[in-house]
Amino acid sequence: MSGMHRDRVRKGRRLSFQRAAQLACAALFNGYAAGFAKGRIFTGPTKMVCVPVLNCYSCPGALGACPIGALQTALGARHHVPFYVLGTLTLFGTALGRAVCGLMCPFGLVQDLLHKIPVPKWTVPRWLDRPARYVKYGVLALLAVGLPALLGLGGGVGDPVFCKYLCPAGTLEGGIPLLLADPALRRAAGLLFGWKTLALLAILALSAAVHRPFCKYLCPLGAFYALFNRFSFYQLRLDQSKCVRCGQCERACPMGVEVTKNIRSSECIRCGKCRAVCPAGAITSGFGDRGEARAEASGRGS
Amino acid sequence: MKRSNAARLLSAALGLALLAAGLARREHLEVLQKAVRVCLECIGIG
Ligand code: SF4
Ligand code: SF4
């Protein structure tokens, strides 16, 4: 098999693995199909389980709870540190890091699919891109944690600020299907719904030109998992002794990671695109430290 | 490599401890209570 043909085959297989994982997770987390037909949400006991991704619990199909929504409710309305939610997220982060984003999140899938639309693509200039990547940490600290907790002080019911003013997954998965099915909700929709729809449309439109703008710049859950990327069990590894410095991995990376310099970057969503295009087979992935030991033995560790 | 290993084991232990504490405080039932009602803020109504 020629090198180029082998690359194409490998690329095809890897992409389809990512897509299959994304579709399977989207179906699993939103498997209550009857909800869409009835315009009602699922109320069974699985709703006590937090899913690891940004998936609105007011989506008619949702079988589990959104961790970012649950986090804000615990802080704002129940006035306590949300041990259960933080424990769940810490375990997923420790196991997978941002592979949750690359392989499991339905809103990540939506952005990936929109990016396939053939419109001119835009690479955000570095001077804007680098600082903007920190905005998501601000969204986590302020909108998902700080403000809900602050507004709930003194016994009041704090608003889930991120859900209320920004979350595009809530509007797309919950707001739009429920309003389509329920005239009473449609009558109740006002300025806030208009704002949230606008925010959603802006993010969706931008996704066609820029790869995963919401994940790069705004998602509080992506920011949380980013904290685990350096040491999570699941890792990507670069064998420096095999790398031929062709730069194909960095050109293929949708998140703009400098793969050859920093493969454990907090921006890497472990989508595997770099591994699929590497002509030297220098990039591998897996759990634990076996690959790390191999990489260290063959030269510099990643 | 050793440092990563220690960090991931520590992080896993922390995650388990947090989860156990949350379950002991029955926080999963609070999550259930919230998740079975339509969240008006999430859908952009309230
Ligand atoms: S960054 Fe947020 S929206 Fe993007 S894939 Fe991760 S959890 Fe989902
Ligand atoms: S470094 Fe590789 S796995 Fe990570 S986001 Fe970029 S292409 Fe995907």
Topology diagram in text:
The complex is a heterodimer of chains A (302) and B (46).
Chain A: H1 3-29, H2 33-38, H3 67-76, H4 83-96, H5 99-104, H6 106-114, H7 126-132, H8 135-151, H9 161-165, H10 168-181, H11 183-188, H12 191-209, H13 213-217, H14 220-226, E1 234-238, H15 248-252, H16 273-277, E2 283-287, H17 290-297
Chain B: H1 2-24, H2 27-35, H3 40-43
Structure commentary:
The complex is a heterodimer of chains A (302) and B (46). Chain A has 302 residues and is mostly helical. Chain A folds into two domains: 212 residues, no CATH class; 68 residues, Alpha-Beta Plaits, CATH 3.30.70. Chain A is built from 17 helices and two strands. The longest helix of chain A is centred in the N-terminal third of the chain and has 27 residues. Helix content of chain B is 78%, strand content 0%. Chain B contains three helices and no strands. Chain B is elongated. At the A-B interface, α3, α4, α10, α12 and α17 of A face α1, α2 and α3 of B. The complex binds iron/sulfur cluster (2 copies).
| SSE string of chain A, helices as H and strands as E | HHHHHHHHHHHHHHEHHEH
Number of helices of chain A: 17
SSE arrangement of chain B, N to C: HHH
User: Could you give the order of strands across the largest sheet of chain A?
Assistant: 1-2
What is the gist of this entry?
The complex is a heterodimer of chains A (302) and B (46). Chain A is mainly α and 302 residues long.
